[in-house]
Every structure is written in structure tokens, then in C-alpha cells.
Amino acid sequence: MSGAGLSKRARRVKNGLRALADVVKETVAVYAEHEMPVYAGYTTLYILMAMVPLLTLVIGLVNMLPDVSLQHVETVLRKVLPDIPQVQSMTHTVIANVNRQAGSLAVSVSVLVSLWSASNGVNAIQLGLCKISGTGGSQFRQRAAALLYTLLFVALIPALLIFRVLRASIVDLIALVTGYLKMPDVAHLLMDFMEYSGLITLAAMGLVIVLAYTYLQGERKKLRDQIPGTVFAAVLWLLFSRLFEIFISRFWHASSLYGSLASILLAAMWLKSITAILFYGAALNEVLGRRRAGRA
């Protein structure tokens, strides 16, 4: 390659890095100017308060499914929550205690109260997303959207459990269809995806995030425009959770000081950081949207 070609390529790389740096600066500015740390704190509080009602609804549904146990619920949650003994122990205790009440609550009107309480966490996220995008709507429509999204999230965990139970049948169906269509490469790709459950969890996480960005901002956004922030948030979610696990396992020595409150404190720290990542993804989509509008 000639010197002129190398120089031209270097300029393109330099311009690309400069554009990336500008996007990062604008994203951080959008996050800061809309006081997102405050909304992240509100969301953390409401989600912690909604944890028991949310699990009540989930376990009530799971108890109606054949061949699905509470251990399956814990397995799914462990793929989302940080692998920290204090957090995992708290999750196990909460699930066991909630299960004693889920049977009676699932057949009573108190399910509606649980659903309303659980939707408060989603509504807190919704307010932050609306703040970033500068959109909004009637309070009734916002609460209705929060309730529907909460129902979707409640149904997602049983759906993942059904997927795990029926995985062998789904694999057989994939083999049959791809064999009929003579698509062995597609079959191998899908088989690998089915075997690596982490990808399934990542896909479910991405679905939850992209639907939040698309439908919870007061007005419907174009789904394809929410993909960059979704990928950013989902990947950073997994990376941060892993780093958080490493940090706590090596440097956290305050359990003796905080006692039984350590698990709640760790869960709140992790949850607030994850909520901040979610808002950063929305801020990234907002910045990219402004840039597209400026070029139009």
C-alpha cells in the first residue's frame, strides 16, 4: 500500500476516533444535564420495594407450570444478578419466603395490588427515560404503559423457564426444519446458540431494554433507532456485573460491619449502577438521534 493510501486510512481512523469521542462527551453531557443520578436513585428505591410483589407474581405463575421448580427460578435470576454470595443468599431467602404466600395471593385480588406496586419501579425508569428524550404524556397513559411492561417482565421469566424445559424438543424441531430446508450451517449456528445459555440470557436482556427504550418514553420510538443504546447497555450490564463480582470477592470485607444489611447494600449498589447504565444507553440513543436529525 502506498504512503498516500496509508495517510488517507490514518486520517479516516483519526476522524472516526474523534467522532466517537464527541459522541461519548455528548452522551455524558445529556446524562448529567438531566440529573440522571437522581432518577437512578429513585429507580433503585422503587425496584427494591417492588422486589417482593414482583417475585410474588412470578412465583405465582411458575407454580402453575408443570415440571418447573423454584430452583429453575433461582437459576434464571442468577444469570442476571451478580454472582455474590450475599446477594444470592438473599435471593434464595426471599424466593423461599415468597413461595409460602404466592399460592394464596395468586388467586386473590391482592395480585392487583402486587402488580401496581411492582409497576412503580418501571414507572421510575419511565420518568427518567422521558426526561432524557424530552417527551411525555398523560399520567394515565404512562401508568398504563408501566403496568403492561411489568406484565411483560413478569411473563418473561416463566417463558425462559418453559424454554429451558422444552429445549430438547426445540432442538429436535430445529434439526427437523433445517434438515428439510437443507441448511446445515444454520442448524449448527442455532444449536450452538441453544447450548450456550448465556446468549439466551443476553438476548432476553436486550429484548427487555429495547422495548423499554421504544415504548416507555411517552411516545413510541423507532425500534431500529434504539439498537445502539440497547447493545451498549446490555453488553455493559454484563461486563459491569462481572467486574462487580470480582471487586466484591477480592476487596469487600465489610460484611462483619454491616451484618445482615450487607446483602441489601450490595444489591442497591449494583442496581443503581445498572440503572445508570440503562439511562446512559438512552442518552446514547438521544445523541445519535440528534445527529441524524442534524444531517437530514
The gist of it:
This protein has one domain (8-295). The chain has twelve helices and no strands. The chain has helices at residues 3-33, 36-62, 70-78, 85-105, 110-133, 139-165, 167-181, 184-195, 197-215, 227-251, 255-258, 262-295.
Give a written overview of the molecule:
This protein has about 300 residues and is mostly helical. It has one domain (about 10-295). Helices cover about 85% and strands about 0% of the residues. It is built from twelve helices and no strands. It has helices spanning about 5-35, 35-60, 70-80, 85-105, 110-135, 140-165, 165-180, 185-195, 195-215, 225-250, 255-260, 260-295. Helix 7 (about 165-180) packs antiparallel against helix 8. It is globular, with a radius of gyration of 22 Å. The model has no long low-confidence stretch (mean pLDDT about 75).
